[in-house]
Amino acid sequence: MLFAKLLFLPMRNQSSYMARSLKPKNRYLLQNLIMKIRLIAAIVICLICCTPFSGKAQKVMVTKNGDKYHLASCRYAATGATATDVKDALAKKFVACDVCKPPAKPNSEGTQCTAKTKDGTRCSRLTSSKNGKCWQHA
Question: 8 - beta bridge partners?
């Protein structure tokens, strides 16, 4: 119970609450521990919220009269496009748009990085970023 109170109280209340019951060195160690726990909790929450759920199908937009599939943000999918899975779009012989570069495979891990290494060869890492470059070349 004490731990739960200390974790969720603001730091100014913690120090006055702890000042009555702990020695200064122990108070400092406890405050330090609480700050580390808060930091770890914030990182875990960010990772959980920011990680895409790979189990659901990737949605792309298909126009009625076109032969390409697009991301929802693509300028060519703005009017008259319907949402479908990448798997269905590929089965109907649609090809990926050259402008928005939607995923070429269902649930693909990414495409090869378009940047060049110091040797002059193409980078071999996979990326799923829109600019086509991996974390090192972004």
Answer: none
Q: Of all residues in the chain, what percent are helix, strand and coil, respectively (each to 5)?
A: 40, 15, 45
Phi/psi of residue 19, each to 5°?
-60, -30
Residue 1's pLDDT is what? 45
Rounded CA separation 138/133 (Å)? 5
How many separate helices (H) and strands (E) can be counted in the chain?
4, 6
Binned at pLDDT 50, 70 and 90, residue 55 comes out as: very low
Q: In whole angstroms, give the CA distance from residue 110 to residue 128.
A: 4
Confidence of residue 52 (pLDDT cuts 50, 70, 90): low
